[in-house]
Amino acid sequence: MGEGITRRDFIGLIGAAVISGAGEKEACGQEFKDQSLEIQNLIRQLDFDKRHEKINFQEAKRELPPKLKNLVQEIIALQKSIPAIVAAGRIPDARDHQRVWAACQTILPNLPAYSEPAFYQTFFTEIPRRLAAFGVATVIRTDRIKDDRDTIVSELPRAGFYHVNKITSDTVMFEGQPRERSVLFVNSLAIDQPDTNTRLLHFAAFTDSGNIIIDEPALAAEHGAERQMAVANREYLNMITDDFIMGHIADKQGADQDKWADIGASQRRHRRYLLRGNFNQLDNIISHETGHLMHAFEPDFREREQPPFMKTSAEVTKYAQLSARRSEARGAIGNLLFAKDKLGALNDLLYVPKPEDAANVDDLGHQMAGAQLRELAAEELVQEADYYGIKISANTPVTPRNQALFQIVEISGDANKVEHLGRKLLERVRHGQEFKSIVVSKARLPFTKQARTADAGAGKQNLHIEESRDSCGKLGFAGIVAAVGAGVWALRSLGARKMAVRQAEATHRPKNNRRKKRKK
After folding, report:
1. Alpha-carbon gap, residue 55 to 50, rounded angstroms
2. SS3 458
3. pLDDT band, residue 14 (cuts 50/70/90)
């Protein structure tokens, strides 16, 4: 979806319409109307609730009844029409929603008369629950439409519908309490849907409706890409020894040394992992997502995490970045606490993407979470070096932080040590300044009416549509592939002096197989 026409141009069209009749002037004059701030925040709240409130799914796929199938088709038709509606300079309203609402009334006879709040409440709650009984997962994301003043004009939800192919359920212990965990494996669209409007699964795994959802085709694609990366880089990874990496880190100072220590630790962990030849990381992916699920069980979760009252795109962006940072941190910690493969679990702590790879604000939030977790982990390792078996030497230019981080891979063979680190990090994330919420506004649902500023409609205001990404996605295999690629790219850039020492060993140079990091 691209930019719409400006309000000034639209007013010009209205002026031209006056010639053809005064009645048409009134209709056109009312056509462009901003969605109220109350509705925008209601959609944000419903989206938040839907992601975290548990829905129980039917595993066996069942044919959708005609009325329910018609409802899904009407939703898809509405979503196909939204770009044209926005391009025409207006926001979808009762005229556009009426066919969906009429289809809702055929399966929910007790619905009240149409209103915007009732429409969105039904869209986010009743429809997903009805479809879940037939083995269909409804994934909803929102697009923000904003003007040149950075004021959000509208929040428009989009739904995608997916067959649940398999469900696994178990109970995990989180801080001494049993918690239910269900994993939904989806593998196809439940009904013919245009990919451009409804293919919403940006990740191989994420949390939604209080469940972990695994997109099996995406998972298989990442699995194959990881194998290719390992084969292509096996000889090169063997060539880069620990001494070689540490020697290069020792040549650096300050922030530059920290950066290379991060890359070196990541490359060291991936080298061990890939050369081991074990590429089945589904357990670690599920463990990461379990961290997101357990996040919602924390006592003050609702008070701390639910969306505040937000008006501008900058406010929403700030909230999204903080939310992504906190959520991704807990996902990484969940991997340390729940994963069986502790070497694989360290991936979340050591993954070092390049800032320019951040595709959106949620990506940036995830990257900042990773950077902060590495700092906290290094502090914990230094403080309890004896417990972890970390050797800190004063006879090296490498700082204690970087010595500890470089050795973190050594603790992967001891589950107790890894889980101890996870619990320490969870405590720091809960109480540390690094991950505290920034309150945009004290106002929360239920809302009172708040008018936009008097000049909100003045001047030239193009409409921009920006897609809202899920902040609870799993890096998965693509993260492993990208991290190895980043490590290889970085280490191949070393100075000629160090590379010359091992030039005789460099019998193979891998092609540039770095995959672009998946958008979040």
Report:
1. 9
2. coil
3. very low
